[in-house]
Structure formats: C-alpha cells, structure tokens
Amino acid sequence: DIQMTQSPSSLSASVGDRVTITCRASQSISSYLNWYQQKPGKAPKLLIYATSSLQSGVPSRFSGSGSGTDFTLTISVLQPEDFGTYYCQQSYSTRLTFGGGTKVEIK
Amino acid sequence: QVQLQESGPGLVKPSQTLSLTCTVSGGSISSGSYYWSWIRQHPGKGLEWIGYIHFSGSTYYNPSLKSRVTILLDMSKNQFSLKLSSVTAADTAMYYCARLDSGNYYEFDYWGQGTLVTVSS
Q1: What is the mean pLDDT of residues A30-50?
Q2: How far is B21 from B97, CA to CA, in rounded Å?
Q3: Pairwise CB contact (< 8 Å): B107 & A49
Q4: Helix, strand, or coil here: A8?
Q5: d(Cα B51, Cα B36) in Å, to the nearest integer?
Q6: For residue A65, what are the β-bridge partners?
Q7: Distance from C-alpha of A21 to C-alpha of B117, rounded to nearest angstrom
Q8: How far apart are CA B9 and CA B110, in angstroms?
C-alpha cells in the first residue's frame, strides 16, 4: 500500500495567518492527491482534487500544490470557520489510502 | 444535489455480521462515472477506506479487510450495501458511504453523514 504521511499532526494559528500542511507519499503518485476538511461530528468535505483543483463552492483561500511524493495544502488567510482536521488521500493506486490528518485549531 | 444516507443497526454483537445500507438520492448508482464506497473512522482516529463497487459489478476492497467484506449494489432501490463478517470490538467505528468520482482523479465528492456502529455483547 502507498503510505501517506501528514505534518504537522496539529497546529494552532491565528485568524489571518497563512497555514501550510504537508503530505508525503511513500512512492510517486503523480498528481493523484486529494484534500478533505472534517469538522467535529461531521463527514469529511472535499476541498481539492487532483493536487490543485478547487472543488466547487470551496473558498479561494484554499490552494494545493505539489507532484510526485510531496504535496501541500495552503490556507492563505485563516478564517475562524477553518478549524477542523484536514486529510490528504491518494488515488494513484486502486488501494486508496488517507494521511493521518492535521488538526487545525484557531488561537 | 446528490445525497447519501447510511442506515443499519448501531449495535452488533461480536462474531456477527455488520450490515449497512447507503441510499442514494439525486443521482443514479448506475452512472458509469462513479464508484460507490465505504469508509470508516475509528473513534478519535483517521479515515480508513473499506472498499468500493462500480455499477458493472467490479469491486475493490482494502486488503486488510478483504476476507470479511462484501459490497453489493441494488439498482432497483438505488442503494448499495456493506457486509462485514466476524466483527470484533476493533470494528467499532463511524461508517461513511461516499461517492468516488472516476471522471477526475478518483476523489470522494459526496459523503453520507455517517453512522456509528458499536460492536459489543
């Protein structure tokens, strides 16, 4: 299986900050990388697919980049509603795998 | 707007079979562009893909669960189901159904709200 490793596992940031989350794959996955946001008690929500394509309705402060094994999710200007846990997911292999998650807290 | 809704028992006894159904509305499960998926999340933990099925009948399962998992489609009811046999306390989790869009990069674009299944005698 392709292992996905996220860092950091948690972070605390202030409203207005720029936040970056990293996801690393155990082998090259080309651009087959998706990002999700999950709020407590809710199902995950798709934010970005294919590394950098913004899902419809997702604010433009969210962006993604990378290729091969290293990927990033950036929140350009952190908003109060951006708290939650963020997961990356690879779809290069038919055996889909997720990263362990990054919990974002608002200071 | 596509909506997915999980249903099934919230409590299952050890060694029995967990059975859940996902009802899809606002779209047809017979569309060739999508795979219909199950994902679970242990309490306080991350996401674990269980498996998915295509309307053609093709299935893909997580190797760690493959011997115990069956996913089926019921196109007459626009539903798909999950059966997980020989459950233990380690199968206690929130179970989500989701649509996997194969038209782009195989992302989960719609999710159900999830259903908590507890394995306990």
Answers
A1: 97
A2: 9
A3: yes
A4: coil
A5: 8
A6: A72
A7: 31
A8: 22
In the sheet that A4-7 helps form, which strands lie side by side, from edge to edge? A4-7, A19-25, A70-75, A62-67
Contact residues, B window 38-97, toward A, CB-based 8 Å cutoff = 46-49, 60, 62-63, 96
- Walk along chain B (121 residues) and give the pLDDT tens digit of each residue: 999 999 999 999 999 999 999 999 999 999 888 999 999 999 999 999 999 999 999 999 999 999 999 999 999 999 999 999 999 999 999 999 999 998 878 999 999 999 999 999 9
Q: Any idea which residue has 């709200």 for tokens?
A: B113
Residues of chain B found within 8 Å of residue A96, distances taken between Cβ atoms: 49, 106
d(CA A8, CA B48): 20
Tokens describing residue A1: 């299986």
Contact A99, A4 (CB under 8 A): yes
Q: Which residues of A lie closer than 8 Å to B, measured between beta carbons?
A: 1, 31-34, 36, 42-46, 49-50, 53, 55, 87, 89, 91, 94-101
- Of A99, A24, A11, the C-alpha closest to A66 is A24
Can you tell me the distance from the alpha carbon of B108 to that of A65, in angstroms, rounded to the nearest whole number? 19
- Report the gap between the CA of B42 and the closest CA in chain A (Å): 12
Q: Residues A96-104: what's their mean pLDDT? A: 98
Q: Which three-class secondary structure state does DSSP give residue B66?
A: helix
